[in-house]
């Protein structure tokens, strides 16, 4: 929390014990797993309009993942989740990779949505 506050991310603890924060106009969540504190996972979620072409969504997600280090693109019927996941030597090491993780999420999301916008 202190690191996120010092970087101006305005963090908040969610009802499930995760950490939510704002970054460059988006909302991100650091998923906290008490059973595995050395696993670092930061996620951003976008709501999707209905009636998306599932095949096109999968192609866009694959393109985003292939072109982006660390990022994962996960699809549901109503949302697209973009996450950066990695293992740390120590839980506090996340601050050393935070900027790159957020950049990876942004690149994957941008690639996904640009692919979806193409006819």
Please outline what is shown here:
A hairpin with a 5-residue loop joins strand 1 and strand 2 (19-23). The chain has 119 residues and is an alpha+beta fold. 35% of the residues lie in helices and 30% in strands.
Could you list some keywords that capture this structure?
single chain, 119 residues, alpha+beta, Yope Regulator, Chain: A, 6-stranded antiparallel beta sheet, 3 helices
Give an account of the 3D structure.
This protein is α+β, with helices and mostly antiparallel strands. The protein has a single domain (2-117), classed as Yope Regulator, Chain: A (2-Layer Sandwich), CATH 3.30.1460.10. 35% of the residues lie in helices and 30% in strands. It contains three helices and six strands. It has helices spanning 2-6, 54-66, 94-117, and strands at 12-13, 19-23, 26-31, 39-47, 71-75, 79-87. A six-stranded antiparallel β-sheet has the order 1-2-3-4-6-5. β5 (71-75) and β6 (79-87) form a beta hairpin. α2 crosses α3. The radius of gyration is 15 Å and the shape is globular. The mean pLDDT is 94.
How are the elements arranged and paired?
Elements: H1 2-6, E1 12-13, E2 19-23, E3 26-31, E4 39-47, H2 54-66, E5 71-75, E6 79-87, H3 94-117
Antiparallel strand pairs: 1-2, 2-3, 3-4, 4-6, 5-6
Helix pairs in contact: 2-3
How many structurally independent domains?
A: 1
State the name of the first-level CATH class.
Alpha Beta
Oligomer: single chain
Query: What's the CATH architecture?
Result: 2-Layer Sandwich
Helix content range:
25-40%
Kindly state the mean pLDDT as a whole number?
94
> How many β-strand stretches?
6
Shape: globular
Strand residue content: 25-35%
Order of helices and strands: HEEEEHEEH
Query: Which blocks of ≥5 consecutive residues have pLDDT under 50?
Result: none
- Largest sheet strand order: 1-2-3-4-6-5
Fill in the CATH topology: Yope Regulator, Chain: A
Main beta sheet: strand number and arrangement? 6 strands, antiparallel
- Number of helices, counting only DSSP H or I runs of 4 residues or more: 3
Helices and strands: which structural class?
alpha+beta
Measured between the Cα atoms of the first and last residue, the distance is: 42 Å
Cα Rg: 15 Å
């Amino acid at each position: 929390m202190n690191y996120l506050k010092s970087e101006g991310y305005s963090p908040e603890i969610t009802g499930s014990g995760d950490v939510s924060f704002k970054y460059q106009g988006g909302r991100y969540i650091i998923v906290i797993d008490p059973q595995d504190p050395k696993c670092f996972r930061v996620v951003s979620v976008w709501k999707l309009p209905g009636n998306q072409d599932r095949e096109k969504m999968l192609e866009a997600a694959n393109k985003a993942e292939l072109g982006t280090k660390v990022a994962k693109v996960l699809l549901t019927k109503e949302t697209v989740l973009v996450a950066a996941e990695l293992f740390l030597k120590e839980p506090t090491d996340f601050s050393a990779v935070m900027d790159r993780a957020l950049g990876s999420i942004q690149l994957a999301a941008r690639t996904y949505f640009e692919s979806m916008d193409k006819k």
